[in-house]
Design goal:
It is a single chain. By secondary structure, the protein is an alpha/beta fold. It has one domain: Response regulator (Rossmann fold). A 5-stranded parallel beta sheet has the order 2-1-3-4-5, with helices on both faces. The two termini are 15 Å apart.
Length: 121
């Protein structure tokens, strides 16, 4: 079974994304910040990651963009989808330059999540 690392500091957002991914047949691993995301990525080597773009700084990792940079150092082929709010276009561009492959706008809709995942394959 394919695995997905869901990274978001909001527990309710992680739960919502997890529910959709389980419906699509994925096993889900969770992380609540960028530092934990890097540790979980290294431990589980998931098929792809959904990464919240704005999270509090923990253990020197300032946000989702920096977490992307750290994960890309571990695995240059990592597949990362950024999760963002409206009005964060500049951050999305920085995340894509750091190695993210795509992005989703909150609130995430099931059909859009499925579409973006299918583009990763």
């Amino acid at each position: 079974m394919a695995t997905v690392l869901v990274v978001d500091d909001a527990k309710i957002m992680r739960a919502n994304i997890k529910k959709m991914l389980v419906k699509l047949g994925y096993e889900v691993i969770e992380a609540e910040n960028g530092a934990e995301a890097v540790v979980q990525y290294e431990k589980y080597n998931p098929d792809f990651v959904t990464m919240d773009i704005t999270m509090p700084e923990i253990k020197g990792i300032a946000d989702g963009i920096q977490a992307v940079e750290e994960i890309m150092k571990l695995d240059y082929a990592a597949k990362i989808i950024m999760v963002t709010s409206h009005g964060e276009q500049e951050k999305v561009i920085r995340a894509i330059k750091a190695g993210a492959m795509n992005y989703l706008l909150k609130p995430i809709k099931f059909e859009k999540l499925e579409e973006v995942i299918n583009k990763l394959k």
